[in-house]
Amino acid sequence: MWHTDWIEILGFITGALCVWLLARQNIWNWPIGIANNVFYVAVFLHTGLYGDAGLQVVYIVLAVYGWWTWLYPDGTRSELAVTRTSAREWAWLFVATAVGALLMRTFLADYTSSTVPAWDGLTTALSLAATWGQCRKLLESWWVWILVDIIYIPLYVYKGLNLTAVLYFVFMLLCIAGLRSWSQALGAKPGPA
Fold first, then answer.
1. Within a 10 A sphere around the Cβ of 112, how many other Cβ atoms?
2. Which pTM does this prediction carry?
Protein backbone atom coordinates (compact mmCIF):
# COMPACT_ATOMS: atom_id res chain seq x y z
CA MET A 1 0.00 0.00 0.00
CA TRP A 2 1.61 3.23 -1.19
CA HIS A 3 1.07 6.45 0.75
CA THR A 4 -1.28 7.70 -1.97
CA ASP A 5 -4.03 5.76 -0.22
CA TRP A 6 -3.75 8.19 2.70
CA ILE A 7 -3.27 11.14 0.38
CA GLU A 8 -6.40 10.10 -1.53
CA ILE A 9 -8.33 9.96 1.77
CA LEU A 10 -7.09 13.46 2.65
CA GLY A 11 -8.03 14.59 -0.87
CA PHE A 12 -11.54 13.15 -0.39
CA ILE A 13 -11.99 14.92 2.94
CA THR A 14 -10.65 18.28 1.78
CA GLY A 15 -12.60 18.06 -1.51
CA ALA A 16 -15.92 17.41 0.22
CA LEU A 17 -15.20 20.10 2.83
CA CYS A 18 -14.21 22.61 0.14
CA VAL A 19 -17.44 22.14 -1.82
CA TRP A 20 -19.49 22.28 1.39
CA LEU A 21 -17.80 25.58 2.38
CA LEU A 22 -18.14 26.98 -1.15
CA ALA A 23 -21.87 26.28 -1.14
CA ARG A 24 -22.06 28.34 2.08
CA GLN A 25 -19.91 31.13 0.57
CA ASN A 26 -17.33 30.65 3.33
CA ILE A 27 -13.90 32.06 2.43
CA TRP A 28 -12.15 29.06 3.99
CA ASN A 29 -13.17 27.05 0.91
CA TRP A 30 -10.16 28.56 -0.91
CA PRO A 31 -7.30 27.34 1.33
CA ILE A 32 -9.07 23.99 1.86
CA GLY A 33 -9.46 23.74 -1.92
CA ILE A 34 -5.77 24.46 -2.45
CA ALA A 35 -4.90 21.66 0.00
CA ASN A 36 -7.24 19.37 -1.93
CA ASN A 37 -5.49 20.24 -5.20
CA VAL A 38 -2.04 19.58 -3.72
CA PHE A 39 -3.17 16.14 -2.46
CA TYR A 40 -4.58 15.26 -5.86
CA VAL A 41 -1.46 16.40 -7.74
CA ALA A 42 0.38 13.66 -5.83
CA VAL A 43 -2.35 11.05 -6.37
CA PHE A 44 -2.69 11.75 -10.09
CA LEU A 45 1.06 11.79 -10.72
CA HIS A 46 1.38 8.42 -9.01
CA THR A 47 -1.45 6.88 -11.05
CA GLY A 48 -0.32 8.32 -14.39
CA LEU A 49 -3.20 10.78 -14.85
CA TYR A 50 -0.88 13.59 -15.88
CA GLY A 51 -3.58 15.76 -17.43
CA ASP A 52 -5.53 15.64 -14.18
CA ALA A 53 -2.36 16.47 -12.23
CA GLY A 54 -1.75 19.50 -14.44
CA LEU A 55 -5.39 20.52 -14.09
CA GLN A 56 -4.95 20.59 -10.30
CA VAL A 57 -2.14 23.13 -10.75
CA VAL A 58 -4.51 25.31 -12.82
CA TYR A 59 -7.12 24.95 -10.07
CA ILE A 60 -4.55 26.12 -7.49
CA VAL A 61 -3.95 29.27 -9.54
CA LEU A 62 -7.71 29.85 -9.85
CA ALA A 63 -8.18 29.27 -6.11
CA VAL A 64 -5.53 31.87 -5.28
CA TYR A 65 -7.35 34.29 -7.60
CA GLY A 66 -10.72 33.45 -6.01
CA TRP A 67 -9.34 33.80 -2.50
CA TRP A 68 -7.86 37.20 -3.38
CA THR A 69 -11.09 38.32 -5.04
CA TRP A 70 -13.16 37.30 -2.04
CA LEU A 71 -10.77 39.05 0.37
CA TYR A 72 -10.50 42.24 -1.71
CA PRO A 73 -13.69 42.63 -3.78
CA ASP A 74 -14.01 45.45 -6.29
CA GLY A 75 -16.62 47.78 -4.83
CA THR A 76 -17.59 49.17 -8.25
CA ARG A 77 -18.63 45.82 -9.66
CA SER A 78 -22.17 44.49 -9.26
CA GLU A 79 -22.85 40.80 -8.75
CA LEU A 80 -22.45 38.70 -11.88
CA ALA A 81 -25.82 37.31 -12.99
CA VAL A 82 -26.48 33.77 -14.20
CA THR A 83 -26.92 33.71 -17.99
CA ARG A 84 -27.37 31.15 -20.73
CA THR A 85 -24.57 30.18 -23.07
CA SER A 86 -24.98 31.84 -26.46
CA ALA A 87 -24.64 29.96 -29.75
CA ARG A 88 -21.39 31.81 -30.39
CA GLU A 89 -20.00 30.79 -26.96
CA TRP A 90 -21.07 27.17 -27.59
CA ALA A 91 -19.26 27.18 -30.95
CA TRP A 92 -16.12 28.69 -29.43
CA LEU A 93 -16.20 26.29 -26.46
CA PHE A 94 -16.73 23.26 -28.70
CA VAL A 95 -13.77 24.12 -30.93
CA ALA A 96 -11.49 25.09 -28.02
CA THR A 97 -12.41 21.93 -26.07
CA ALA A 98 -11.94 19.64 -29.09
CA VAL A 99 -8.57 21.19 -29.96
CA GLY A 100 -7.50 21.15 -26.30
CA ALA A 101 -8.50 17.49 -25.89
CA LEU A 102 -6.62 16.51 -29.05
CA LEU A 103 -3.49 18.45 -28.07
CA MET A 104 -3.57 17.01 -24.55
CA ARG A 105 -4.05 13.47 -25.86
CA THR A 106 -1.13 13.87 -28.26
CA PHE A 107 1.13 15.36 -25.59
CA LEU A 108 0.20 12.71 -23.00
CA ALA A 109 0.64 9.86 -25.49
CA ASP A 110 3.98 11.10 -26.82
CA TYR A 111 5.65 12.50 -23.70
CA THR A 112 4.22 10.67 -20.67
CA SER A 113 3.50 7.15 -19.54
CA SER A 114 -0.25 7.81 -19.35
CA THR A 115 -2.24 4.62 -19.90
CA VAL A 116 -5.37 6.60 -20.82
CA PRO A 117 -4.16 9.66 -22.76
CA ALA A 118 -7.39 10.19 -24.73
CA TRP A 119 -9.64 10.08 -21.66
CA ASP A 120 -7.18 12.09 -19.57
CA GLY A 121 -6.96 14.75 -22.29
CA LEU A 122 -10.73 14.87 -22.84
CA THR A 123 -11.57 15.25 -19.16
CA THR A 124 -8.90 17.92 -18.76
CA ALA A 125 -10.23 19.96 -21.70
CA LEU A 126 -13.86 19.56 -20.60
CA SER A 127 -12.97 20.57 -17.03
CA LEU A 128 -11.31 23.74 -18.25
CA ALA A 129 -14.37 24.56 -20.39
CA ALA A 130 -16.66 23.96 -17.41
CA THR A 131 -14.48 26.12 -15.16
CA TRP A 132 -14.53 28.94 -17.72
CA GLY A 133 -18.33 28.68 -17.81
CA GLN A 134 -18.55 28.76 -14.02
CA CYS A 135 -16.35 31.87 -13.90
CA ARG A 136 -18.85 33.56 -16.24
CA LYS A 137 -21.90 32.08 -14.46
CA LEU A 138 -23.11 30.30 -17.58
CA LEU A 139 -25.96 27.98 -16.61
CA GLU A 140 -24.91 25.24 -19.01
CA SER A 141 -21.49 24.92 -17.37
CA TRP A 142 -23.26 22.62 -14.90
CA TRP A 143 -24.15 20.27 -17.78
CA VAL A 144 -20.49 20.18 -18.80
CA TRP A 145 -19.48 19.34 -15.21
CA ILE A 146 -22.09 16.57 -15.07
CA LEU A 147 -20.67 15.11 -18.31
CA VAL A 148 -17.13 15.35 -16.90
CA ASP A 149 -18.18 13.54 -13.72
CA ILE A 150 -19.90 10.79 -15.75
CA ILE A 151 -16.57 10.20 -17.53
CA TYR A 152 -14.39 10.61 -14.43
CA ILE A 153 -16.24 8.10 -12.22
CA PRO A 154 -15.46 4.96 -14.29
CA LEU A 155 -12.02 6.35 -15.22
CA TYR A 156 -11.09 6.63 -11.55
CA VAL A 157 -12.47 3.17 -10.82
CA TYR A 158 -10.35 1.82 -13.71
CA LYS A 159 -7.26 3.52 -12.22
CA GLY A 160 -8.01 2.06 -8.76
CA LEU A 161 -9.04 5.40 -7.24
CA ASN A 162 -12.31 4.14 -5.80
CA LEU A 163 -12.59 6.77 -3.09
CA THR A 164 -12.03 9.50 -5.66
CA ALA A 165 -14.72 7.92 -7.85
CA VAL A 166 -17.13 8.17 -4.90
CA LEU A 167 -16.12 11.82 -4.40
CA TYR A 168 -16.86 12.58 -8.06
CA PHE A 169 -20.25 10.88 -7.71
CA VAL A 170 -20.92 13.28 -4.82
CA PHE A 171 -19.65 16.14 -7.01
CA MET A 172 -22.10 15.04 -9.74
CA LEU A 173 -24.98 15.23 -7.27
CA LEU A 174 -23.80 18.70 -6.21
CA CYS A 175 -23.68 19.70 -9.90
CA ILE A 176 -27.30 18.66 -10.30
CA ALA A 177 -28.18 20.78 -7.26
CA GLY A 178 -26.13 23.66 -8.69
CA LEU A 179 -27.94 23.37 -12.02
CA ARG A 180 -31.30 23.60 -10.26
CA SER A 181 -30.19 26.51 -8.10
CA TRP A 182 -28.76 28.51 -11.02
CA SER A 183 -31.85 27.69 -13.12
CA GLN A 184 -34.02 29.17 -10.39
CA ALA A 185 -31.79 32.23 -10.25
CA LEU A 186 -32.20 32.60 -14.01
CA GLY A 187 -35.92 31.97 -13.81
CA ALA A 188 -35.68 29.01 -16.19
CA LYS A 189 -36.25 25.29 -15.94
CA PRO A 190 -33.09 23.10 -16.03
CA GLY A 191 -32.42 21.85 -19.51
CA PRO A 192 -29.99 22.05 -22.37
CA ALA A 193 -29.85 25.25 -24.36
1. 15
2. 0.76
